[in-house]
């Protein structure tokens, strides 16, 4: 493949990936606003308490085979079929185990209503399993445009279902039905997009062959899941459902903004980096360019959300969520750095070093848990600060391994990302200070968003940011 062809492929992938994640987050925002106004903090707290169990079971059924298949040069139908039946069997076993563990989960959190709720939500595992192999096919072949349409449509339908139920007083069941509906539609929809179909000729040889690579991805995925939910798990045990609801609300908005960037990068990074694995210089160039693109988007998005967190929460989902504001501000700081994790992790996986991916992630979760447990007597907010600090500092560990693998140097990485971080911080500080006189929260939110976007664009133009120029050229080309 020529250099120009690869460049066009990367640009097209990033464009549709950005559109995919952008449309998803816009829909999530609209649906989230309606539901947050209709439901209580306790409703969100109860659903948030069992999220970690669903996520771990989902990681088990996927078992790292999406990445393993993507790392194969030419995966066969038999490879996909093997993964399909493996995921289906694992999901059935997982659901059975979790079904009987539901009373234990309810006892752990001291909420008996979690028995019926968790058993219902865990049904989603049976539907998500059938979409694992099709997801791997779409990921390997970078079928992003169709993914955008499918995910957006499924989210819209599931959102309408949940809002309708919430209006009729179904409380936390509204959130449960939203999960079930979305996962079912996405999983079944993938079969209408791809030409591959599973067969009854079951051969687990490909699964056994890939497992030496994929099991490390599996363990890392589980650890990542625990890492992302460790605070919810601890808070659910220590605090009330209302308190947990406030935290999950803050975490939800932070994840939405962060995923806009990390989801965009994640859908194209590994396939492109794998393609360049044999050409280290070009791989380094591609990696650094993705770093700049990530910084160009992540810092203004996350710092901007931190700046408007107060008026955003009050205007959109009402003052009953005031206790989530400070947590959202803090989480946005770590959220600005999370997309870089996605990029580093995809680099390490593309080099076939799933063992590094595993131990780097395991060490992070151990550090997070130890620090949070040690600091739990200082309260919820303090634990969020500690969690944020360790999350940011751990990027240095990933950088060490990236340097060892492809020779990318720390000072080059800092040169790539610090200008965007500094510019974003300066813009948000200037906008925040210059708009303090505005009393009306609706006007304040609108003015800050528009002012920050315009000022950041102008500053990038004045500084001659190449990333902005490339984005504008690509958009003009698409329109032309």
What composes the largest sheet? none
User: Percent of residues in helical segments?
Assistant: over 70%
C-alpha Rg, in Å?
A: 22 Å
Rounded average pLDDT: 83
What's the order of the H and E elements? Answer: HHHHHHHHHHHHHHHHHHHHHH
Per DSSP E runs of 2 or more residues, the count of β-strands stands at 0
The end-to-end distance, rounded to whole angstroms, is 25 Å
Structural class: mainly alpha
* Portion in strands: under 5%
- As residue ranges, the low-confidence spans are none
The helix tally amounts to 22
What shape does the CA trace take?
Answer: globular
Q: Could you explain how this protein is built, in words?
A:
Helices cover 84% and strands 0% of the residues. The chain has 22 helices and no strands. The protein has 480 residues and is an all-alpha fold. The two termini are 25 Å apart. It has helices at 3-38, 41-49, 51-62, 65-71, 77-109, 114-121, 124-129, 132-140, 144-167, 172-193, 205-238, 241-275, 280-307, 309-317, 325-335, 338-350, 354-374, 380-393, 395-406, 410-434, 441-462, 466-479. The radius of gyration is 22 Å and the shape is globular. The mean pLDDT is 83. Helix 14 crosses helix 21.
